[in-house]
């Protein structure tokens, strides 16, 4: 990624925003091929995503459970929400659920899409501050990037085996910087993650230039980055449980096209002091990125072009686009309209993201 591959100085960020809003003279057309690739991928899908749908909150542990799903890139955004009822505490550290209500044996990393949902044993157990993942399949998932399955590198497209290996590492770096970085989770700008995105994509530049200043359904930072408003909720502990995998293939013009499909489990509690009620926000993201040959595509060294990105979120308010996940707790008053979508298991990774996008707003079977 060049000499400063992990950061973006404030002046660079401001320059990025200015260029995005003003446009760049003679901007290359090549990155817009990403839009054609997105259109091609969408035509291959079996059907269009569902519009917003309501549902009647399902009762669980004295609370309401909501679910929603989101998708961007020339498609529609669908968001999920879940209100875990009366969950008290969670997220005390790595493997916090072990020995206190869950299997302690960690799962091997995921190498392919599973064919069924995780078992439901122990689902009735409530998490605590000391044991945040108790009662959840995530208790056996990896901590942070340790939960992401990495494929073996091989020469592909314009890259040698060693270059592919480095590309896979950079891909994982992006996932860490966008969805696991403690500062980003607490609302900071994801500068390290943005520094890995090809700045020569006009549509992406426009989106990033406005997403943090004026978030909306069209320009929603949550499609790529995980952020919480710390004036309303607090992250409990310093571990995020993760399960997913990275795959790749040769893409257009000899590019290395990498697909990431990863689920993150975040522990949160109300920001108010003395309240230990806890909820889990569960986020599954699929990001497809093209690591292009700079001889054929205008791209800054060490950056990728976005092909598509989708997000499926449990326990974040439906229809709220404020730039932060907005988890609900069992004690929160009901203010959202009823939903009528299907029941979904947010830990079930056996369904494709395309299928999950079409399921719309509904209930979740567990949190």
Beta strand %: 15-25%
Fraction of residues in H or I helices: 10-25%
Give the radius of gyration: 20 Å
* Largest β sheet strand count, sense and barrel closure: 8 strands, mixed
How does the helix and strand content classify structurally? alpha+beta
- Counting H and I runs of at least 4 residues, what is the number of helices? 7
Envelope shape: globular
Task: State the end-to-end distance.
Answer: 38 Å
The tally of domains stands at 1
Query: What's the count of strands?
Result: 12
N-to-C order of helices and strands:
HHEEEEEHHHHEEEEEEHE
Unreliable spans: 1-8, 23-30, 32-103
Average pLDDT:
77
Keywords:
8-stranded mixed β-sheet, two-stranded antiparallel sheet, alpha+beta, 7 helices, globular, disordered N terminus, 19% strand
Please give a structural write-up.
By secondary structure, the protein is α+β, with helices and mostly antiparallel strands. It has one domain. 19% of the residues lie in helices and 19% in strands. The chain is built from 7 helices and 12 strands. It has helices spanning 10-22, 33-44, 161-179, 182-185, 191-194, 202-211, 353-358, and strands spanning 58-60, 63-65, 67-71, 142-143, 148-149, 233-235, 241-250, 256-270, 279-291, 305-314, 343-344, 363-364. Strands 3, 4, 5, 6, 7, 8, 9 and 10 form an 8-stranded mixed β-sheet that branches. Helix 1 packs across helix 6. The two termini are 38 Å apart. Mean pLDDT is 77; it is low at 1-8, 23-30 and 32-103.
């Amino acid at each position: 990624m060049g000499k400063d591959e992990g950061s973006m100085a404030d002046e660079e960020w401001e320059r990025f925003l200015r260029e995005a809003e003003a446009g760049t003279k003679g901007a290359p057309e090549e990155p817009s091929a990403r839009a054609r690739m997105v259109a091609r991928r969408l035509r291959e899908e079996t059907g269009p995503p569902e519009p917003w749908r309501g549902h009647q909150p399902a009762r669980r542990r004295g609370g309401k459970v909501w679910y929603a799903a989101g998708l961007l890139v020339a498609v529609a955004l669908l968001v999920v929400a879940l209100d875990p009822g009366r969950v008290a505490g969670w997220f005390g550290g790595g493997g916090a659920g072990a020995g206190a209500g869950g299997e302690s044996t960690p799962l091997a990393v995921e190498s392919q899409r599973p064919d069924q949902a995780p078992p439901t044993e122990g689902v009735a157990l409530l998490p605590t501050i000391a044991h945040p993942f108790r009662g959840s399949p995530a208790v056996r998932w990896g901590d942070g990037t340790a939960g992401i399955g990495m494929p073996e590198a091989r020469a592909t497209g314009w890259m040698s085996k060693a270059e592919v290996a480095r590309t896979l590492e950079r891909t994982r770096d992006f996932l860490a910087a966008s969805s696991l970085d403690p500062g980003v989770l607490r609302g900071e700008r994801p500068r390290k993650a943005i520094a890995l995105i090809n700045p020569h994509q006009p549509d992406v530049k426009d989106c990033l230039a406005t997403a943090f200043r004026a978030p909306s359904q069209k320009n929603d930072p949550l499609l790529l980055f995980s952020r919480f408003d710390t004036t309303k909720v607090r992250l409990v502990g310093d571990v995020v449980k993760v399960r997913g995998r990275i795959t790749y293939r040769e893409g257009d013009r000899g590019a290395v096209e990498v697909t990431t499909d990863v689920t993150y489990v975040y522990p949160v509690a109300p920001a108010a002091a003395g309240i230990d009620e806890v909820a889990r926000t569960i986020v599954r993201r699929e990001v497809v990125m093209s690591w292009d040959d700079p001889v054929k595509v205008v791209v800054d060294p060490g950056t990728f072009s976005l092909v598509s990105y989708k997000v499926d979120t449990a326990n974040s308010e439906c229809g709220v686009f404020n730039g932060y996940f907005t988890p609900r707790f069992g004690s929160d008053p009901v203010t959202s309209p009823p939903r009528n979508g299907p029941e979904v298991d947010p830990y079930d990774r056996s369904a494709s993201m395309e299928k999950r996008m079409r399921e719309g707003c509904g209930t979740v079977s567990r949190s």
